[in-house]
Amino acid sequence: MHNAWAHLLWVYYPYLMLASFFFGTFIRFKYFHGSITAKSSEIFEKKKLMIGSILFHIGIIMAFFGHCLGMLVPQAWTDYFGITEHMYHMFGSLMMGIPAGSLAWIGMAILTWRRMTVARVYKTSSINDILVDWVLLITITLGMSCTIYGAFIDFNYRQSIGPWVRSLFTLNPQWQLMLNVPLIYRIHVLVGFFVFGYFPYTRLVHALTLPWQYIFAVAIHLPPLYRLPPADQVGLKAPNGEAFLVE
């Protein structure tokens, strides 16, 4: 790969997508907070939405933390605790990665099929909604392909893709590490960064909303409730003449 293309794909492009993610998210929350919604179409069809959504969310959460572990934790750390590359590959990539990816893929496939085939859902979907579903489905498909393909080749992404990702955060991108990475992995990485850059401008941004105001809210002390008086005190009134007060 020519150095100019290598710099474009493995230096400038990732930073551009990350900048789009952070800048777009800030603008969306600052100036367009009212537009942040999951845009549920449950009113039109419920069963497929419930099944697909549950499977997708469980799978994608598992896959997210698996990616964080694989990309951000150096192999030297797991080696220190006696976890060999073979053990990590068998347990992390295969025993955890395949179930997580399968759940996410099946869930996303159901949601995409639902959006495209249920007439009322399709008619109320925007181009952006449809594009998001297909982009996520393609991304998950590529991820599953990497996991399955990786089981048959001698490739350790924690010695190439992982260090490259961490080098981006240290502002010293080691683009050379990506030159010999198998093509399917490189495509998955590029599409994955596209999802990050595209994220703030879609309904996916609702994933970042948390009820912080309720978590840190000051306790509210309610006044005593006004209740009906006991049967033997019917007709009595409080000193102020209002309804009987029982504390």
TrEMBL record:
Its main location: membrane. It holds the Pfam family Nitrate_red_gam. It is found in: Cell membrane. InterPro entries: Heme-iron_electron_transfer, NarG-like_domain, NarG-like_sf, Nitrate_red_gam. It is an enzyme of class 1 (oxidoreductase). Residues 7-217 form the NarG-like domain. The chain crosses the membrane at residues 12-29, 49-73, 93-113, 134-157, 177-199. GO terms for molecular function: electron transfer activity; heme binding; metal ion binding; nitrate reductase activity. It is a multi-pass membrane protein. Its EC number is 1.7.99.4. GO terms for biological process: anaerobic electron transport chain; nitrate assimilation. Keywords: Cell membrane, Electron transport, Heme, Iron, Membrane, Metal-binding, Nitrate assimilation, Oxidoreductase, Transmembrane, Transmembrane helix, Transport. Heme b binds at residues 57, 67, 188, 206. One of its GO terms (cellular component) is nitrate reductase complex. This is Nitrate reductase gamma subunit. It comes from Limosilactobacillus fermentum (Lactobacillus fermentum).
